[in-house]
Amino acid sequence: MPNFLSQARMVPRVALLSTRAPRNPTKAWEVYWSRVQHTGAGGEVLWDSASDTEWNQYGGPIREHMDLTLPVIDVGCGNGTFTRRLAEVFPLALGVDVARSAVDRAEQESTGIARTRYRTIDFTTAGTGAALRSEYGPVNVFVRGVLHVLRKEQQRALARNLADLVGTTGRVLLTETNFRGNPLAYLQSLGASPGNIPQQLERAIAGIPVPGRFGARERSAAFPARDWHVAAEGPVTIEAVTMTSGGPTAIPGYFAMLRRNP
Ligand SMILES: C[S@@+](CC[C@H](N)C(=O)[O-])C[C@H]1O[C@@H](n2cnc3c(N)ncnc32)[C@H](O)[C@@H]1O
Q: In terms of residue numbers, what domain contains 203?
């Protein structure tokens, strides 16, 4: 079947599923996380492959650019998979998420793991960065898979909070999905076909805000050059859970290591 026909045949199901997602993004994330039963490689959460291969891509930039004596904040931490990884490297890893249920889950999954803490915070709220800065001092920040689900003005609001938070000593490592095709092609790349949408993908379509792409262009709009210096950037592979045969689902991604201009 030609590809455009195959994509067209997915439209009714995708459209129906997407009408189920709550319109308020905070509510949508809360409802999504409150329904999650299983996380990790065999779980229900699309982006939670908990893969060593993906994490290993970040080790070099973290060691090269970040002050490892500072704490790190994992913004939009979800169930804390990456917060726990960060706690192996930094003296303290604070995971924050807009969804209380995500934070509850992260705390539960981090029981007995040293140097992790969690808080429920909307990182697009003005003043958040300054408030955390007064508590923790300058910190490093890790952001995975959050900016691409925010609207443009929310991305800018989040970036302003990060500027207050990192000062001139902390660094921001962001890593985001950056699929450049149309949304139906994206779903196909994740294993969807007419009559078959993997359940992790169905949950996302029916539950959370529609993702966009986030690459160098989107980064420079959200983190303007007058405020931010790009110390490193490039392609990465974001790994989602296994949805078809053959292991974790590879998604083209973009990473950037940023520092605030003095
Ligand atoms: C795609 S998930 C990525 C989770 C985690 N970073 C990971 O890679 O496993 C996006 C996360 O961002 C959180 N989030 C969305 N908007 C947010 C906001 N305004 N402030 C804080 N967290 C937010 C969601 O609740 C969700 O857990």
A: 3-260
